[in-house]
Amino acid sequence: MTDKTHAVDHITGHRRMRRNRKADWTRRLVRENALTVDDLIWPVFVVPGTNIVDPIAAMPGVNRMSVDKLVEAAKEAAALGIPAIATFPNIEMDLRDVTGSQILERENLINKATAAIKKAVPEIGVITDVALDPFTSHGHDGILRDGIIVNDETVELVARAAVIQADAGSDIIAPSEMMDGRIGAIREALDAAGHQNVGIMSYATKFSSGHYGPYREAISTGGLLKGDKNSYYIDPANGTEAIRDAALDVEEGADMLMVKPGLPYLDIVWRMKQEFGLPVFAYQVSGEYSMVKAAAANGWIDGQRVMMEQLLCFKRAGCDGILTYFAPEVAKILSKA
């Protein structure tokens, strides 16, 4: 028999990586990661009023919705198999003040939305944030006094707000304001109020990023912000600091960890998953979403392909799930797969 060994076989030691890539069936057989509808959390924006579906210019395909319309959207999400939604309010300007006191109102917009969703769609998870930025007149996530975000008073307030949100039916509290000690304070407050089964998804590593712009338009805080958030968000240059921050949240009782933004910080996702072993999530934030939509609208990229590829990258990096505005679009695609 003629020896058909090729020079490439000698170079590679008879190992050829392309053998497992040669056909669709082999590629599917050896695929290491997969994106499913179970990986999706849908962030949504709620506004006062009724029968409102208000498109957000900076986020094509994303709307602000009144509670009644949000309930309809939650029903559709549940029907698509999306496990959970994360709600963010855009409240009236005259209700915003320097301390964000509206967050403590039991009948505020976010709590009304939670109660309505859980009544109409009890099978879908509701995740709520206790950061103050949607409620403050200055756009910061905490109480601002003499130009400084005061840590301890903010922690006391958000812990109280967490209990009220749990009372309204929130399944998971996701504190994003990045104050020191907030996870432990919230856990103690929830347990003292009998909410032992309410989880905490910590925004463990929330970076001071330029990717948040469209979100701030969505909740009408962009024009309010005085200064920046560098004194409490993490410097994008600091990976070790981010892991230290997450470690404190783990010690204080976080059930899940989140990295925000998502794609620029996949190294942090990987490190957190390896370090702690807790469920890890990433938030594909508004700027990430809008960049894909804008490039696709201009014909520069295949928007659907890039969307699916980016979400798969989160899974490869170690994410157990992704908060993404693409969730309904992706769920519909996956349902046809």
Main traits of this protein?
TIM Barrel, single chain, alpha/beta, two-stranded antiparallel sheet, 8-stranded parallel beta barrel
Short description:
This protein is an alpha/beta fold and 337 residues long. Helices cover 40% and strands 16% of the residues.
Task: Please give a structural write-up.
- It holds the Pfam family ALAD.
- The protein is of the alpha/beta class and 337 residues long.
- The longest helix has 18 residues, at 151-168.
- The chain is globular and about 85 Å long.
- 45% of the residues are buried.
- It is built from twelve helices and twelve strands.
- Helix 3 (67-80) packs across helix 4 (109-120), helix 8 (239-252) crosses helix 9 and helix 10 (286-297) packs antiparallel against helix 11.
- It has a single domain (33-335), classed as Aldolase class I (TIM Barrel, Alpha-Beta Barrel).
